[in-house]
Specification:
The complex is a heterodimer of chains A (228) and B (99). Chain A contains 13 helices and no strands. Chain A has 228 residues and is mainly α. Chain A has two domains: 7-173, no CATH class; 175-228, no CATH class. In chain A, helix 2 (12-37) runs parallel beside helix 4, helix 2 crosses helix 8 and helix 7 packs antiparallel against helix 8. The longest helix of chain A has 33 residues, at 122-154. The two termini of chain A are 35 Å apart. Chain B is mainly alpha-helical. Chain B has a domain at 1-30. Chain B contains four helices and two strands. Chain B has helices at 3-30, 32-55, 65-78, 83-97; strands at 56-57, 60-61. In chain B, a hairpin with a 2-residue loop joins strand 1 and strand 2 (60-61). Chain B starts with a helix and ends with a helix. Classes of the chains: A mainly alpha (228), B mainly alpha (99). Chains A and B meet through helix 2, helix 3, helix 4, helix 5 and helix 6 of A and helix 1, helix 2, strand 2, helix 3 and helix 4 of B.
Chain lengths: 228, 99
């Protein structure tokens, strides 16, 4: 492994944190999905081939309030559209063949793209991306099996504060972006728009419209923010 | 959730990811302004996800134990604490406030 690849690998503490967080998400989400689906095989298959906890939850949420199958599917797809945006962003920074590019696209999630995009070189981006992807898959799969087979023992996972873990992890991941003025503006405007629209807009659309934050930040000159 | 639904959900999500990687990337590369936009998208989109996960309760916004946990996490991140400390503190504070 070259020196560049070693330096691009995230710190072990970061990888362990991501792994633990995805374990917590895997448990929390798959206890709910298992309750809804009623089949361990389907729950595990959905965890693996959909690879989007928010899509599964959006589908279940719409069905639970009496929405049609089509409406629930559309909600699931819309909340996953952010992965397309993240994939587009990642795609501009990598120089790999179609096979690896497609594999990367299918694994695009918030943490791995968030960490990878902070690397200065295309090789570093891919190295960081795959390390984080490995860590989150390890946590996600262990959490999925724990949620399906030990759900009854664990009970309400939110009682353990696990619902605060994912936003905390994401905040830590984009912390470096927030220390630069354009990234800070993009985050504040994007987050603000999403929060403002949550009560009134259909599921998933506030996150898509948060793109406006990135557009607004284009007008901000690139320079270090004052101590944040 | 039937097998058909699981497959439709999976195909839709995978298509969006591939569309972003190929279609979105091509668009970003063709228009120079989009190149910088691409680097700002993660900050905007991820912060929107954070806002939703921190304050959403169904279709309403709430400040609760979870928000307090994330606020503590934010302070620790600002103080450059390790990620493992950040997530453990967020979970602990949230759980304690729910006792």
């Amino acid at each position: 492994m070259s020196e560049a690849r070693v330096s691009a690998r995230p710190e072990w503490g970061t990888l362990i944190g991501i792994c633990l967080t995805f374990f917590a998400i895997g448990v929390t989400v798959n206890v709910l999905v298992y309750e809804h689906v009623g089949s361990a095989v389907k729950t595990i298959a959905a965890a693996g081939i959909v690879l989007s906890a928010t899509s599964e939850l959006a589908y279940i949420a719409v069905r639970d309030v009496g929405g049609s199958v089509l409406a629930a599917l559309i909600a699931g797809w819309v909340v996953a559209s952010r992965f397309g945006l993240l994939a587009a962003s990642l795609g501009t920074r990598i120089k790999v063949g179609h096979f690896q590019r497609s594999c990367a696209a299918l694994n695009c999630l918030d943490p791995n793209v968030g960490v990878a995009m902070q690397q200065p070189t295309p090789a570093g981006v891919m190295t960081a991306f795959w390390w984080v992807t490995g860590a989150l898959h390890l946590g996600w799969w262990c959490g999925t099996f724990a949620g399906v087979f030990l759900g009854n023992i664990i009970g309400d996972a939110n009682r353990l504060g696990l619902d605060a873990v994912f936003p905390a992890l994401l905040l830590a991941i984009i912390a470096n972006l927030l220390r630069q003025r354009p990234g800070f503006v993009a985050a504040v405007v994007g987050g603000g728009i999403c929060a403002a629209l949550l009560p009134i807009a259909p599921a998933g659309t506030p996150i898509i419209l948060s793109l406006t934050g990135a557009i607004v930040a284009l007008k901000v000159p690139e320079q270090k923010a004052a101590s944040t | 959730m039937t097998w058909t639904i699981i497959i439709l959900l999976a195909v839709g999500v995978a298509s969006l990811r591939l569309l972003g990687m190929y279609g979105g990337t091509a668009l970003v590369r063709r228009v120079p302004m989009f190149e910088r936009l691409g680097s700002l998208i993660p900050a905007a989109v991820v912060s929107a996800v954070i806002a939703q996960l921190t304050f959403a309760s169904g279709k309403s916004l709430t400040i609760d134990a979870r928000s307090a946990g994330v606020a503590i996490a934010a302070i620790l991140i600002w103080r450059r604490a390790p990620i493992i400390v950040v997530i453990l503190a967020a979970a602990t504070i949230t759980a304690l406030l729910r006792l």
